[in-house]
Amino acid sequence: MKKYSKKYTAALAKVDAKKIYDLAEAVKLVKETSVTKFDASVDVSFNLNVNPTLADQLIRGTITLPHGNGKTKKVLVVTNTKIEEAKEAGADFVGGKDMLEKIQRENWFGFDVIVATPDMMGELGKMGRLLGPKGLMPNPKTGTVTMDVKGAVIDIKKGKIAYRVDRDGNLSMPIAKVSFSDADLLDNLTAVCDHIAKSRPSTVKGTFIITAAISTTMGPAVQISFPGRN
């Protein structure tokens, strides 16, 4: 039987595992039950009734949170034509084929997101086995293959999050830090829940969102209910 720390056990006792909380209640409770000494991340997770092997049920996309998620992502822009635009927008690293060679030569991954102009996708495509498993391959569906480099970089820096359901129908994303105000955390959580609820494929029969919960790093999960969860 798994043993928990006294702090986690005390936090767990505050959560009714059989109850599904409304979002405002859940926000207060998840902050009360944070067990770390550092400013923990608040994550929301869903289990969806989808078959990701079907193209129209592969739930993926992006969302820009109203208040960001408290994390600053390092952005690499791969381009030959938008170098100055990328720098002005606040990209952390900018270059063309030289950057791709650096990744291959040094196994360098000092960034969180790659934004690329369409003309560079031929070179990036050759690195699929290296970038794909790390979730770093740019994709038009997430807005990371674009001629609007400035807009893409600014959105990412503001807190734009890319998400994708896994093969078991699970989808999760970091939406805040424990230090966020209740109001800001609630705004972010509401935005994500509304967004996911509206992503229901027309081919899904019956319940779409099987479970939904929020939790802090190493903290207990709090089940949530919201309009559109069905």
From TrEMBL:
BP terms from Gene Ontology: regulation of translation; translation
Summary of subunit composition and partner proteins: Part of the 50S ribosomal subunit.
Protein role: Binds directly to 23S rRNA. The L1 stalk is quite mobile in the ribosome, and is involved in E site tRNA release. Protein L1 is also a translational repressor protein, it controls the translation of the L11 operon by binding to its mRNA.
GO cellular component: large ribosomal subunit
One of the record's GO molecular function terms: structural constituent of ribosome
Keyword list, A-Z: Repressor, Ribonucleoprotein, Ribosomal protein, RNA-binding, rRNA-binding, Translation regulation, tRNA-binding
Family from the record: Belongs to the universal ribosomal protein uL1 family.
Record bears the keyword Protein transport: no
Gene3D superfamilies, per database record: 3.30.190.20, 3.40.50.790
Stated name of the protein: Large ribosomal subunit protein uL1
